């Protein structure tokens, strides 16, 4: 019975790995030789040993010592000197193969080996039984307990619960025929929205009819007042003049009520007012750029100009005397255009400059890297490289749909596969207004097509023949890119996306007012609009 373990050997080996070079009084580094066992100090089974090594450099007598752990006994298999019984321990004598130390060790009792026994009392569903048993080794006799069986319940009748009344289930034991009743709580009404009896307004609650889908019971429920939804910017209700003040307010976009009514001081040509020139896309979202130049002209003479450092988040402010000014924009990023000039009015110093974006016809280059706010280049995915069997181009997709979602994935990406069912569910609801293209940069078309068919996916799937993953710098999968109807990269989402997030993205970028509302409001208020504004969207 060998007790000598590998652990002792490993401990000894670890001690031999100490550094062979250490500093010597700042003069030189020691260069030690091999470890040697000190004579008479070898490690034994019970006592530790001692080793030493010397520096081999001339004139240096530096010595290092280390302790070698005791080896521990290496026991032989030994001899049983007393055999164990069912109830008594035995003993076994063993000798160390190295130092010949002898020692007695305890052998555990074996325990009784009971026969099947004679049944004295059968166990039932609710009571224990008893057997008389004899040990097959030593002949000892005793009575042992049989555990109770427990009921074997079967459901024998059901009184279903209703919306308002409890039900019950009756269970009967197949062994002893005992019965037990289980209450089924009332289900409660499953209300579904019925007709609107009274529409809610911004300030008054409405009323809706509810119908239970189970029992056809009817009820009425209040529809909370919607609350006002004010416009983001003030509307000039009464324009100030040089003779009298004016008034501005936020208008509720639902009922038109004026909110936050604020007086405007009358104009004074000697008192500058703050003009704000806000760069916006047709969607009303800010364009955060650093290279656009906004120039303010008074009768053709430049009176103010923004610099790159002044444009932050697409907004530029300057104090000028109250006048009618002309505003021009230059240095727009690739793909963006604006009207030749805009008008800044003294009665409405907020001048919104709406920009139009259009996909760039020329293909992307090796240095192209898209980010949020970039205008896409047109791209082409050949018919043989996608599941539609027809050529896919971004320009054609945007002529037919309001948004395009690119989903970068590959077949063996578990997170990609996990989000696809949610994406498919949302796509089926929005496919008339938005397109999805799942782009795989790694797998063959056969593998992509097989995956789509096996998982019941109906949106187009494609190999990345256009190099789109490179242009977006995709390194994590899945990555979802949202391209709005103007061809602008509006969102880049890295990682698996839940169905609810997909739904909110589709809803936002396909909404009727996404491109129209802000530009239309500007047209009504100040009579300016980008020359390239696509009026097809406003219909």
Task: Give the key terms.
4-stranded mixed beta sheet; 13% helix; mainly beta; 35 strands; 5 domains; 539 residues; 5-stranded mixed beta sheet; disordered N terminus
Walk me through this protein's architecture:
The protein has 539 residues and is mainly beta. It has five domains: 6-68, no CATH class; 112-155 and 171-176, no CATH class; 193-223, no CATH class; 235-357, Immunoglobulins (Immunoglobulin-like, Sandwich), CATH 2.60.40; 380-497, Glutaredoxin. A hairpin with a 6-residue loop joins strand 7 and strand 8. Helix 3 (414-430) crosses helix 6 (499-510).
- Using the coordinates above, name the CATH class of the largest domain: Mainly Beta
CATH superfamily of the largest domain: Immunoglobulins
User: What radius of gyration results from the CA coordinates?
Assistant: 43 Å
Low-confidence stretches: 1-24, 517-539
General form = extended
Share of residues in strands: 25-35%
Q: How many distinct helices?
A: 7
Report the oligomer. single chain
Question: What class do helices, strands and sheet pairing give?
Answer: mainly beta
- Could you please say which CATH topology of the largest domain applies here? Immunoglobulin-like
Distance between the termini: 94 Å
**Count of separate structural domains:** 5
What characterizes the major β-sheet?
Answer: 5 strands, mixed
List the helices and strands and how they pair.
Layout: H1 6-15, E1 23-24, E2 28-29, E3 36-37, E4 49-54, E5 63-68, E6 79-82, E7 90-95, E8 102-107, E9 118-121, E10 129-134, E11 141-146, E12 153-159, E13 167-173, E14 179-184, E15 191-198, E16 206-212, E17 218-223, E18 235-238, E19 246-251, E20 258-264, E21 273-281, E22 293-298, E23 301-305, E24 315-320, E25 325-330, E26 336-337, E27 342-344, E28 350-357, E29 380-381, E30 392-393, H2 394-400, E31 403-408, H3 414-430, E32 434-440, H4 445-454, E33 461-463, H5 468-471, E34 479-484, E35 489-494, H6 499-510, H7 517-526
Parallel strand pairs: 21-28, 31-32, 32-33
Antiparallel strand pairs: 1-2, 3-4, 4-5, 6-7, 7-8, 9-10, 10-11, 12-13, 13-14, 15-16, 16-17, 18-19, 19-20, 21-24, 22-23, 22-25, 25-27, 26-28, 29-30, 31-34, 34-35
């Amino acid at each position: 019975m060998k007790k000598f373990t590998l652990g002792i050997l490993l401990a000894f080996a670890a001690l031999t790995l100490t550094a062979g070079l250490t500093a010597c009084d700042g003069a030189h580094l020691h260069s030690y030789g091999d470890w040697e066992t000190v004579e008479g100090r070898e490690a034994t089974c019970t006592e530790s040993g001692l080793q030493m090594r010397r520096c081999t450099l001339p004139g240096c007598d530096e010595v290092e010592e280390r302790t070698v752990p005791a080896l521990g006994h290496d026991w032989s298999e030994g001899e049983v000197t007393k055999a164990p019984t069912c109830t008594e321990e035995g003993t076994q004598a063993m000798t160390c193969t190295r130092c010949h130390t002898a020692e007695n060790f305890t052998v555990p009792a074996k325990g009784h080996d009971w026969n099947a026994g004679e049944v004295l009392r059968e166990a039932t569903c609710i009571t224990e039984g008893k057997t008389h048993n004899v040990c097959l080794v030593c002949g000892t006799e005793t009575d042992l307990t049989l555990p109770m069986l427990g009921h074997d319940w079967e459901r024998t009748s059901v009184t279903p619960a209703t919306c308002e009344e409890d039900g019950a289930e009756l269970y009967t034991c197949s062994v002893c025929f005992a019965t037990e009743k289980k209450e089924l709580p009332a289900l409660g009404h499953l209300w579904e929205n019925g007709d609107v009896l009274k529409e809610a307004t911004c300030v008054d609650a409405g009323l809706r009819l509810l119908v239970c889908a189970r029992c056809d019971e009817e009820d009425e429920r209040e529809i909370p007042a919607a609350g006002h939804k004010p416009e983001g910017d003030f509307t000039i209700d009464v324009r100030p003049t040089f003779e009298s003040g004016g008034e501005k307010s936020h208008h509720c976009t639902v009922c038109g009520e004026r909110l936050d009514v604020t007086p405007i001081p009358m104009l004074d040509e000697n008192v500058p007012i703050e003009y704000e020139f806000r760069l916006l896309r047709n969607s009303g979202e800010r364009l955060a750029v650093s290279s656009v130049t906004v120039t303010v002209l008074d009768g053709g003479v430049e009176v103010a100009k923004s610099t790159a450092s002044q444009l932050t988040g697409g907004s530029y402010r300057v104090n000028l005397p109250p006048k009618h000014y002309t505003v021009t924009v230059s240095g727009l990023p690739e793909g963006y255009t604006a009207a030749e000039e805009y008008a800044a009015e003294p009665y409405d110093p907020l001048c919104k400059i709406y920009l139009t974006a259009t996909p760039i016809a020329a293909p992307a280059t090796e240095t192209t890297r898209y980010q949020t706010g970039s205008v896409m280049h047109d791209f082409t995915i050949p018919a043989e490289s996608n599941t539609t069997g027809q050529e896919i181009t971004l320009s054609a997709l945007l002529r037919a749909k309001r948004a395009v979602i690119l989903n970068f994935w590959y077949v063996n990406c578990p997170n990609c596969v996990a989000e696809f069912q949610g994406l498919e569910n949302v796509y089926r609801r929005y496919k008339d207004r938005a397109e999805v293209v799942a782009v795989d940069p790694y797998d063959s078309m056969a593998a992509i097509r097989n995956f789509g068919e096996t998982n019941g996916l109906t949106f187009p799937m494609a190999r990345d023949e256009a190099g789109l993953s490179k242009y977006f710098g995709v390194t994590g999968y899945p990555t979802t890119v949202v391209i709005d109807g103007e061809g602008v990269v509006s969102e880049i989402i890295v990682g698996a996306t839940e169905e609810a997030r997909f739904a909110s993205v589709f809803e936002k970028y396909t909404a009727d007012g996404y491109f129209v509302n802000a530009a239309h409001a500007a047209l009504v208020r100040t009579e300016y609009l980008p020359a390239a504004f696509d009026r097809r969207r406003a219909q």
